[in-house]
Structure formats: C-alpha cells, structure tokens
Amino acid sequence: MKKKIIVGLDFDGVVAYSPLRILRLPVALAKRHLLGIRETHFWVPKTPLEKKLWSLAFSTSVFPGRGTALLRQLANEGIIEAHLVTARFSFMQNNLNQWLHRRGMHNVFSGIILNTRDEQPHLFKERIINAKRFDYFIEDNLDIVRYLTGRTKTNVFWIYNILDHATSYPYKFPYLEKALRAIVRSG
Ligand SMILES: [Mg+2]
C-alpha cells in the first residue's frame, strides 16, 4: 500500500475562505513602509474588548475554502492524512469547533492543533511543523510562508490572494483545491 501523504493545513484562508484576507496586504505594507516594522510580529489581543473584536473579524471566515470537498475525499480514501494547525488564540477554540461541526468537517482531520499557549503564530507553526514532520504544509499568510522558508524540511505551499498574486514563490496556488491536486500529483 502506498504511504499516506501527511499534510498540515492552516485554517483561516486555507480551509476556510475569509473575505478579510484581502485587507491583510495593505496592513502588512503599512506596517513595513509607514511604521518601519520589518520583523515578523503579530499583535495578540489581550483585553475582553480586543478579544471580542478579534473574534468578530474572524467570524468572516465563514465559507469553506474551494477544495474542502476534495480534502474530505482524499482523507476518507486514505490518500492523505490531514492535520489542522491553527494559530487562532485559545479563546477562539469554541468558534472553530462549531464551524467544523456545522460543515461536517470534524472527522476530516487526524489531528487539530490549536495555539493554546498563545504563541506568536509564525513561531507556533514552525514548532508544530518541525515536531510533526509533515510532508506538506499549506498556509495563506505570506509573512509566515517566508519565515518558514529554510527553517523546515516540510514543503510549504502558499495560497495567495488576488492582491499579492504578483509575488513570486515556487509553490503558490490560488486556492486549496489546486494545492491538493499538486500534492497528489507529486506524491
Ligand atoms: Mg491563515
């Protein structure tokens, strides 16, 4: 029997489609050019109000990404073993579980790994990817993709959005389905 392909997937922007993703590029550019921030660093909500607003912003990740049906099929057929790795902060766990149940996706993943220690997202993902030794990891955040380059043996696939489609990266895909097909092709 062929060996299963172990695939780690980010949630927001990969498994779930978020219309707000489009806002992230202007925010990243403003940080880099106006504020002169070059380091990869993510803001962490702390007060109840910040947490409320943060949950509200992520509640727009309502739609399943294009490719979730194929993801379910590949996992059911045993071609891939899917692991969800999300840097969502601990206070958003319920929200995520509800989404997966509502979409009938809670059985698709062999593992669901949440950022329960509220680590910086890029450091959290680096740690998990290297501990789990995925064959592939699918991520939509370009800062995280760039950070991971050279820091892991896992093939990092990037899901881009229309605003940053011009950015070159060897493994870039417009949505999950294309990334999964490329993974199945290359084995
Ligand atoms: Mg994401």
Q: What can you see in these coordinates?
A:
The structure is a single chain. This protein has a single domain, classed as HAD superfamily/HAD-like (Rossmann fold), CATH 3.40.50.1000. The strands form two sheets. It has a six-stranded parallel beta sheet, with helices on both faces. The protein has a two-stranded antiparallel sheet with strand order 2-3. It has helices at residues 21-34, 48-58, 68-76, 93-102, 121-132, 142-148, 176-186; strands at 5-9, 16-17, 63-64, 80-89, 109-115, 136-139, 155-159, 172-173. 40% of the residues lie in helices and 20% in strands. The longest helix is centred in the N-terminal third of the chain and has 14 residues, at 21-34. Strand 6, helix 6 and strand 7 form a beta-alpha-beta unit. Helix 5 packs across helix 6 (142-148). The chain starts with a strand and ends with a helix. The chain is built from seven helices and eight strands; from the N terminus they run E-E-H-H-E-H-E-H-E-H-E-H-E-E-H. With 187 residues, it is of the alpha/beta class.
Roughly what fraction of the amino acids lie in strands? 15-25%
* pLDDT < 50 runs, ≥5 residues: none
What compounds sit in this structure? magnesium ion
Mean pLDDT over the full residue set: 86
Structural class: alpha/beta
Q: What is the CA-CA span between the terminal residues?
A: 13 Å
Number of domains in the coordinates?
Answer: 1
Number of helices: 7
CATH architecture title: 3-Layer(aba) Sandwich
Reading off the top of the CATH hierarchy, the class is best stated as Alpha Beta
Biggest β-sheet, characterized? 6 strands, parallel
